[in-house]
Amino acid sequence: MIRRRSAPWIHRWSRPLLGGIATLGVINTAYLTYLRWFGEAVCPTQTCAVLASRYATIFEQPLSLWGFLAYLGMAILALAPLLASGENQKSLRSSLEEKTWLLLFVGATGMLLFSGYLMYIMFTEFMFGGQNLGWAGLCPFCLFSAICALAMFVLVMLGREWDDRGLLVMLGSITGIATLVTSLAVYAPQPVAEGQYAITNGAEKPFFYLSDSAGEAEKELARHLKQSGAMLYTAYTCPHCCEQKQLFGIEALPDLPNTECNPTGKDPQTELCQKELQAAAVQTKQEPGFPTWKINGKYLFGVQKLEELANLSGYQGDRNFKNQFKACKPA
Fold first, then answer.
1. Per-residue pLDDT, 170
2. CA distances, 316 to each of 4, 230, 307, 311, 319 (Å)
3. Alpha-carbon distance 7 to 260, whole Å?
4. Residue 87 exposed, middle or buried by CB count within 10 Å (0-12, 13-18, 19+)
5. For 49-58, what is each residue's pLDDT tens digit?
6. CB atoms within 10 A of CB 59
7. How many CB atoms lie within 10 A of CB 77?
8. In angstroms, rounded to a whole number, what is the distance separating the alpha carbons of residues 227 and 329?
9. Do 216 and 247 form a contact (C-beta atoms < 8 A)?
10. Could you tell me which residues come within 8 angstroms of residue 225 by beta carbon, excluding any fewer than 6 positions away?
11. Residue 123 carries which DSSP code?
12. pTM to 2 decimal places
């Protein structure tokens, strides 16, 4: 009697492991999506650079949402055949396994290449390149997602015997070209449209666009804040700083008292910002973040309603503020 050789452990456990890693990716991206949609209107000091950049948005939706859908799809593909576990479902399970392995390969390859592209952007543009933020430019959520994508690809390659390697080379090549072309097309720089105002770094590179115009009340409040000695501390990489400026409107910005705190921003005053943020942390007993307001010696973190700014600063003018909260468009 010929004894049948048992399958390697990696073949037996590849699908549960794939499903587990994909589930971790689902949790990671779901959390990021929640933060993007419902998070506080304040950026912790020197962060938000990656998650608020144009690379974190595709088709006006958070990149994490698309990542969530991709990880969810991988989890379903990995675990669905395991649900067919009965004796009378062996043929169904075998069929599902055969059909889903190629889809898992295509999905894992595309996610690995796209994650690799984003890691290249993070290291060359945010950490050690244009923005040169060092470790402050590291996005741990993005790094974790890239590790998950790499682990899934390795498991797909080792999780079964691939008889037709030529087919894998062909599918991998097609997937790689499609991923590269799509990535370059999605992240191609967009010119400033008419009626928009660009928030830029010190090299005049746009990061966010404002589109709302200012009414007379907004312009009058901005002038009053400047005359009363109020100050707004911001960083060009902070989306909530842009949202605060959006509430005032484009025409009010020249009169809005604003200090740039990012060292790679336009006319930064880093030492002053550090001093003020430290004082704000002592006064509020909170971690400092952007935007930070200083009005009559009182510090406030986060996006503030114009009505609240008017009350705190003793503004007595027109309060017919027309602008409502609107997220800024990443460049």
1. 95
2. 88, 15, 11, 9, 8
3. 61
4. exposed
5. 787 777 888 8
6. 8
7. 23
8. 30
9. no
10. 232, 256, 257, 295, 309, 313, 315
11. I
12. 0.78
